[in-house]
Amino acid sequence: MEILTSINPATDETVETFAVHSPADVQRLIDGARRSFAHWKSLPLMRRTDLLRSAAKTLRNGKQKYARIMTIEMGKPISEALAEVDKCALLCDYYAENAERFLQTEIRPSAPFRHSSVRFDPLGIVLAVMPWNFPFWQVFRAAVPALAAGNVMLLKHSSNVSRCALEIEEIFRMAGFPDGVFGTLLLPASRLESVVPEVQAITLTGSEAAGRSLAALAGRFLKPAVLELGGSDPYIVLADADVRVAAENAVRARCVNSGQSCIAAKRFIVHEKIYDSFLDLFRAGMQALKIGDPLQSETEIGPLARKDLREELHGLVEDAGANGARIVLGGNAVFEQGAYYAPTIVDTLHPSMKLYHEEAFGPVAAVLPFSEDEEAVRLANDSRFGLGASIWAGDTERAMAMAPFIEAGSVFINATVRSDPALPFGGIKDSGYGRELSLEGIRSFVNVKTVRLL
């Protein structure tokens, strides 16, 4: 019998195993979702939003339990896991409050027709392929607007967080959602090819490779898709920035979720006049981070999610060092047990190094100097990724003037990049396409239907 295994990355212990769904199991779930869609889409929108409020309440009531499950399965510091549950509940409340406005039929007069309007009708089954790094948030970010719009969802979660997937399914059930509206597929990614023809849309958050693979399937079967892929976000510090504030925020921006975030700052592009002072403050902040048991509230850096991911990260650092980069801090695994990696800073990079081009998924920061604003923009854009960016400056008008030239889905001024239910989220270039959250997110998987009466 094929199984999926959950391993605690802090202890290397097997937490739980899960039987993979058979083809018959998968077909049963697809058929159930299809039947549920016929009923779910016909419910009054107010009923669907009431259930979202119930889901928010369920999340808050089980906050400690859900946070602990996340931390045990993928190593997230417990304080961040608790915040993740809160954010999921906030998202449910946001769409409960705003879905009616976002989905309201729009009247668009057009002579000679007596009536011209645009409706936003659900599509059907949305397949969600989700990653392990934010095992609750990524799922809710995709599911809540899709369900609010009247779609149903089948989740294929990362195989190392299967308990998270099943708990999320149970949350929707406890909140009162009808059976089949949200279901979980326990299967390896290699079997998605048989699922894609059965669904009406696809959303994926994950690696660039996973995105390319699923996009190919979506293209073959003509399914609309939203892809939120990797990032190598630039963090630009201009000469007039408050260096201490910029450095303090740089530590948080790089090490959120132990550095395992697509929108974490990864490339720190610092004006040469303040480069040394920034680097000293940044190094001190990174060095002071508390590494340890992610279940302890004081822990700031937990393990990476798997040991193979740690080896990939260390390979990038080793390659940089071998090709002339300076390892300012860290550059090594810590503890014999678990998948821990030390907070690391690397400078004197150049384009021949893998770290210059690849996404470092862990607490590894690359620092580069610049002399003119145009050079900072060039360095920021010298990446195949385009997810987020931040600019730190005393003259905010100058920073705002730079923002249109940054090739990214979002640019934050004097703040770290983060997703917000009220604003669209997504990237360009190899960071994917489409948008989640806000108005754009709920309209990603609807039939934008023109209705006219002559």
Descriptive report:
With 454 residues, the chain is α/β, with parallel strands linked by helices. The chain is built from 14 helices and 20 strands. The radius of gyration is 23 Å and the shape is globular. It has two domains: 3-229 and 431-453, Aldehyde Dehydrogenase, Chain A, domain 1 (3-Layer(aba) Sandwich); 233-420, Aldehyde Dehydrogenase, Chain A, domain 2 (3-Layer(aba) Sandwich). The model has no long low-confidence stretch (mean pLDDT 98). Helix 2 (45-61) packs antiparallel against helix 4, helix 4 packs parallel to helix 5 (137-148) and helix 8 crosses helix 9. The chain has helices spanning 23-40, 45-61, 63-74, 78-103, 137-148, 162-174, 208-220, 243-255, 275-287, 307-322, 354-357, 373-381, 396-402, 438-442; strands spanning 3-7, 14-19, 106-107, 115-122, 125-130, 152-157, 182-184, 201-205, 225-228, 233-237, 265-271, 326-329, 344-347, 364-370, 385-386, 388-392, 410-413, 428-429, 432-433, 446-453.
